[in-house]
Amino acid sequence: MKKTKVICSVGPASNSVEVMGEMVNKGMDCARINLSHATQDDILNTIEVVRQVRRKCNAPVAIMYDTKGPEFRTLEFDDGGVSLKKGDTIKMSKDCIQGNENEFGVNHSEAIDFIEVGDKVLVDNALLELEVIDKQEGYVVLKALGNGKIQNHKTINVPGVDLKLDFISDVDKKDIAFAAKHSCDYLALSFVNTREDVIAAREIIEEAGGDALIISKIESRMGIENLDEIIDESDGIMVARGDLGVEVPMEELPMLQKDILRKCREKGKFAIVATEMLASMYENPRPSRAEVSDVANAVLDGTDCVMLSGETTIGKYPVAAVEIMSRICKYVESTIDYTKHPVYKGSIGISDTIAKLVVDAVEYSNIKLIVTPTMTGFTARKISNLRPNSIILACCPSNHIAEKVALNFGVKPVLTEVYESTEKVIENAKKIAQKEFNLNEGDLIVITGGFPLGEAKKTNYVRILAI
């Protein structure tokens, strides 16, 4: 099986049991719901589709919600948008609600107060660049520096300008609480700049009775500057290259990606690379060679997951996009020597020590499989971060726990019963290992976890067995 996980954004092209079922069979591990575009009815429909797909494919497909965040966006236009030619001017107004060829409105009108003459305004991930040439009470005048379009609900970036937007708006609070109550396994937080942003979101999740893992999206210079503290406070990190590639010079992006992934590995957190990975497959049945290399390099850089956005929401070939991305990941993984796992610095605890022992045992003892019965996913995540050469079979007591390890590199979650004794847990783990991987007599497996299950607060057990 491939070890790198594939996250697929859900939209009109993929939001059916038939299509999503095919996507899961081709390698999809997680359904992403973009709260910038989905209504509550859309969300409930997607959740039902995912539940049916889980049963149909017998797969623990996870659900990720992606918040709007303090995004600066256009409002709607009379005809869906306007086209501008180089040199054309248009007003960005605090009062305009419905846009036209003369002016358009934005979702945070107060942000216009912080924009000055000479600032660059980038629309839709910098597909259109404009410059502020005049500022008056209630609006700024923008001049197009090239040809392009301004359309409904497109992102706006003003590099180097603090627009003073609240990190969690009233809309986001409602969205996060709704997500926490409706099958949220992972919450991707947009435009995280500080650890306090993560803490604020976690409080909302807990108040709503949820336990979603938080993925902080790094999309700004401030996020880069505070990266270490953000990683420490988060469960995972997303290299959100769309807005990040606008907020910082694009030539910095490849090295920033490598730095973020390296730090995630060092700190034991999982990571996602996202945005435009197979963008040409919006329209074409095959990706460009550059896109193939992009996906491959993300795997080589050490990402846990890669993500498809428009390719699977509005693209013409959602199933093919998943299949091709999975093929790239699987092939590249086969070329990597994973024995050079991270070296811990300084003293480490019992759980980290056992995780390292397990990975060393796989390397030196020809062990075919790592099996970890788990009540929380803790042990599976620890070992995943060290990148053993073998698959990690996580025996989970519920779909909920299985989904919590669905995005960890090399982890295959399966459902199992809860057993009272350690020996019964181990006996069952052996049976599942044989069933899932067709092991032969004499093959070695290593079983590890926290025992007794449900009581141990850390990994404290390791045992090597022969089939």
User: What is the helix tally?
Assistant: 15
* pLDDT averaged over residues: 92
Dominant shape: elongated
Q: Percentage of helical residues?
A: 25-40%
Computed over alpha carbons, the radius of gyration is 23 Å
Give the spatial strand order of the biggest sheet.
Answer: 1-2-3-12-13-14-15-16
- Tell me the quaternary state: single chain
Q: Outline the biggest β-sheet.
A: 8 strands, parallel, barrel
Measured by DSSP, the beta-strand proportion falls in 15-25%
Distance between the termini: 21 Å
What does this structure look like?
The chain has helices at residues 17-26, 40-57, 170-181, 195-207, 221-225, 227-233, 241-247, 253-266, 289-301, 310-313, 318-334, 350-365, 378-385, 399-404, 422-437; strands spanning 5-9, 28-34, 62-66, 81-84, 89-93, 103-105, 120-123, 128-136, 139-144, 148-151, 156-157, 186-189, 213-218, 236-240, 270-274, 305-308, 369-373, 391-396, 411-415, 444-449, 461-466. With 467 residues, the protein is of the alpha/beta class. The chain is built from 15 helices and 21 strands. The longest helix has 18 residues, at 40-57. The strands form four sheets. Strands 1-2-3-12-13-14-15-16 form an eight-stranded parallel barrel, surrounded by eight helices. Helix 1 (17-26) runs parallel beside helix 11, helix 3 (170-181) crosses helix 4 and helix 9 (289-301) crosses helix 11. The two termini are 21 Å apart.
